Each structure stands twice: as structure tokens, then as C-alpha cells.
Amino acid sequence: MLWALSVTDNAVMLVDCAGRVTLANAATRALAERVESGAAPEYLLNLLPKDAWTLACQSGSWHGDITTPSGVLLAIALHHDEQAGPAGHAGMVRSFVTFDDLSARNGRERELQLRHDELQNTYRRLAGTQEQLLQSEKMASIGQLAAGVAHEINNPIGYVHSNLGTLQEYIGALFALVEAHEAALQSADPAACREEVRGKRDRLDIDFIIGDLPKLLAESREGIERVTKIVHDLKDFSHTGRDEAMRPSDLHRGLESTLNIVWNDLKYKVRLEKHYGELPLVECHQSEINQVLMNLLINAGQAITERGSIVIATGAESGEAWISIADSGCGISPDALQRIFEPFYTTKPIGRGTGLGLAIAYSIVAKHHGRIEVTSTPGAGSAFRVVLPVVQPRDAEGA
Ligand SMILES: Nc1ncnc2c1ncn2[C@@H]1O[C@H](COP(=O)(O)OP(=O)(O)O)[C@@H](O)[C@H]1O
Ligand SMILES: [Mg+2]
User: Fold this and answer.
1) What spacing in Å lies between the alpha carbon of 332 and ligand 1's midpoint?
2) Which atom of ligand 1 is nearest to the CA of 353?
3) How far apart are CA 100 and CA 168, in angstroms?
4) Once rounded to an integer, what is the mean pLDDT over residues 84-108?
5) Are 94 and 23 within 8 A, CB to CB?
6) pLDDT-based confidence at 85, cuts 50/70/90?
7) How far is CA 106 from CA 44, 66, 68, 71, 188, in A?
8) pLDDT score of 2 more than 90
């Protein structure tokens, strides 16, 4: 017991029946010294109000907070043992007093709170930086694809433009025919003009125009729709969705709009095969998952130098949905396979690779409580498989 008192950090004092200190442990001595320079442990005991002893005699204990003349706030507990012996009898331990330096504890708590606030600020700043990194990587990838996307937009714009020129000619011809009809109607003998109008109709090639016009309009509408779709898909990407909750999303739709954006970079060298299975709506940040798919598709395309194939397959089982993107490209050596998810690990020349694509894909998928599995055979190709839970664990969503 006495040994325990000597090693504990709590300030403890034993007092005998005569009110004299029989033992004050090291913590008590240090506390007395701290409260009043040069003070002995008795100094602490004298801080107790007189009625503390009386009350402790009656009920067995007394608790109170006391501010010392030097301004230190102490929580004091006095435990009294009535059976120990008659009052005034020296030697028998009768009371057990503990002192708790609340000022120091408050100081420590303030310090802890401060550290905690600092940590939280740092965490918030880091989260912000991560979000920026995510966004800049996405923009860099789109930047790499910009030429292809521009081409994809230019193509339909080109034929819509040329169609508009043809339409203008057709309308000119139609107006000319309407005028011929009107002139005939207003003439004294409209029936006599019939041949002339028919001749004009043949010269203006009106039958061809009537056949071609709907086709031209349909083609132009399709072109405009294609441009609208690409712009919409691009907007889907640039969207951060940071503060939004994850939403049940159609991963096939995400795949299609991602393919739309990367297609121009792939179409000349890649034969695309799709094996889409049945997918439920998957709870996710769609634009972030699109970013993952885009990175995998770009990598697959870059792994194929001459000609090759990319096979996209999807499916769902046991509460998980998966998308696999397999290419017949250069493959990844076992050594490199250990490192591909490291930030800034790249085997590509500057301007073509940032080394961030897979690192970011990994963190996005991890945030969604999913995983990315990779298998690769050097020289034969690689397969990346993204597995996501269909429903996010309830208490962890958005963590
Ligand atoms: N489908 C793939 N085929 C072969 N190598 C790949 C494939 N995907 C990724 N890699 C390897 O992993 C590295 C890191 O990929 P990533 O993080 O996307 O960065 P980056 O594409 O900018 O180099 C690539 O440089 C490449 O060596
Ligand atoms: Mg990449």
C-alpha cells in the first residue's frame, strides 16, 4: 500500500487522529512546492475549510474544489475512518486525502484540444489538397484527350454545316417552285401554265429534294445530338460531386459516356468487345467512377501500340458489381505490378503519363469500399477489374 503511494502520480496524503500528516507521497510534495514555493505538504492540508473535517466525520468523506492563494484550482477529497481511533490520538491513520490539480489538468486538456483542432485543420487541408489533385488529374486526362474530343465534335459539326448549305439550296428551289405556282394561279388561264410549271419542277429536281430533305434533316439532328452528348459527357466528368451523397447509378451508362470521350483515341487501333451482364444500380459518385474507368481505358489503349483488342465485361454477384477492362497490350512485369498504384509511378514519357491515374483510381475505389484487382502477362496483356459494393456500408458512407 505504501509502496503504491510512492509510485502513483496522484497526490495522496495520510493524516492521523491528531490531524498530523503521517505520510505525503512525492506527488503531494511536488504539488505543495508548485502551489507555494518552499511549502511543505501540511500547507495543502491547511487549505481545507474547517467544516470539511466535521462533515467528513459525519458522512465518511468530503469533496470540494479550492483555489489556493496563488490561484491554483485543486479538487480535494477527504476520506475519514471513524473506527481508526479516538480523535487527538497520534499515530493511527484516520484520514486519507487526495489532491487533484485541476488547473494543470485544464491546461493539459486545453493543450489536447488545441492539438486536436490543429490535427483537424491539417486533415481538412489534406482532404482539400486530395480533392484538388483528383480534379487536376482528371483535367490532365481530359487535356490529353482534348484533341480526340475536338475531332469527335468537329466531325458532326462539319457535316451539319455542309448539310445546312445543301438545305439552303433546296429551300431556294422550293421557293422558286412556289413562285411558279403563284404566277400560274394569277395568270388569266392557269391551266395553260401547267406544262411550264411541270418543266420548272423537273429542272429544279424537286422529286430528288423531297426524297433527300428528311434524310438530311435526320442526319443533322443526329450530328447535333452527338455533339450535345459529348459535351454532356464532358460536363459529367468536370463535375466534382464532392459534397454530394453517393447515388444509385447506372454503371453501364457511365461506361458508355466514358467510352464516348476516349473513343477517338482508341478507334483506329482497338477492336472493342463488350460483354455487359445484368447490373443493379450501384451506390456511388458516378463522375468519380467514370474517372476510374477513363483511366483504365486510357491505360489499356496506351498499352496497345499497333493493333489490339479491349474487352469490357460487367457483372454482379453477392452484393458486388464488377467491371473488367482487359487489353491485349504490352502487359506488366511482376516487378512493375508491385508499383503501378504508387503515385507518380509511370513508365511513359513526359506528357503521356503522370503516374497518377491508377493511384487516384485506387483511392476513389477505396473510398467506395471497393477494390481493384489486376492480372497481367507481359507481352500478352492485362486485365483490371473494379469491384464495388452495390450498397455502401451505412455508417461509413461519405467517410
Ligand atoms: N493496361 C496496362 N497495360 C500495361 N501497363 C499498364 C497498364 N495500366 C497501367 N500500366 C502501368 O502502370 C503505370 C502507372 O499507370 P498510371 O497510374 O495510369 O500512370 P500513367 O498512365 O500516367 O503512367 C503505367 O505507366 C504503366 O507502366
Ligand atoms: Mg494512366
Assistant:
1) 8
2) 22
3) 94
4) 79
5) no
6) low
7) 20, 15, 16, 13, 111
8) no
pTM (predicted TM-score): 0.60
Taking the C-alpha atoms of residue 176 and residue 196, their distance in angstroms, rounded to an integer, is 13
For ligand 1, pick from 134, 265, 295, 299 the residue to mutate: most ligand atoms within 8 Å of CB: 299
Domains of the chain: 2-106 (3.30.450.20), 243-399 (3.30.565.10)
Residue 176 CB: number of other CB atoms within 10 A? 15
Q: 3-state DSSP: the chain helix, strand, coil percent, rounded to 5? A: 55, 20, 25
Percent of the chain residues past pLDDT 90, beyond the cut? 51
Pocket of ligand 1 (CB under 6 A): 295, 299-300, 303, 327, 329-332, 336, 340, 345-348, 353-359, 382
HSE toward the beta carbon, residue 5, CA cutoff 13 A: 16
Q: Tell whether the torsion through CA atoms of 45, 48, 50 and 52 is positive or negative.
A: negative
Confidence of residue 143 (pLDDT cuts 50, 70, 90): confident
In angstroms, rounded to a whole number, what is the distance separating the alpha carbons of residues 356 and 295? 9
